[in-house]
Design a protein that fits this description.
InterPro entries: Restrct_endonuc-II-like, tRNA_endonuc-like_dom_sf, UPF0102_YraN-like. With 117 residues, the protein is of the alpha+beta class. It has 2 helices and 5 strands. The longest helix has 19 residues.
Length: 117
Amino acid sequence: MDRRKLAGRSGEAEAAKYLRSRGYELLGMNYACRGGEIDIIAARDGFVAFVEVKLRADASFAEAREFVTPAKQRRIKTAALTWLSTRECALQPRFDVIEIYTRGGELRLNHLENAFE
């Protein structure tokens, strides 16, 4: 696995740890299907959150959330629909983004609920 993928997995692990600490139940990680991929699937308070994790050194070029483009959003939605179609789920779906910045060896995490529709 290359360095970028390893860093991405590390960011996803940090995001999962954060979500658990906030009372979310993790339902899945790295769900992939023909139409797309979802980093984390988690549930809390009547919602199932399909979470995209974006890891960056800092926001000097652009905020991490800006890399969740409309095309990426479509792929996440397609994967979410596939995931939902394979199980009974009475929870309301929601799309979140977790930005993680790592400049200076310090992690800064920003959780954006309902980041897109």
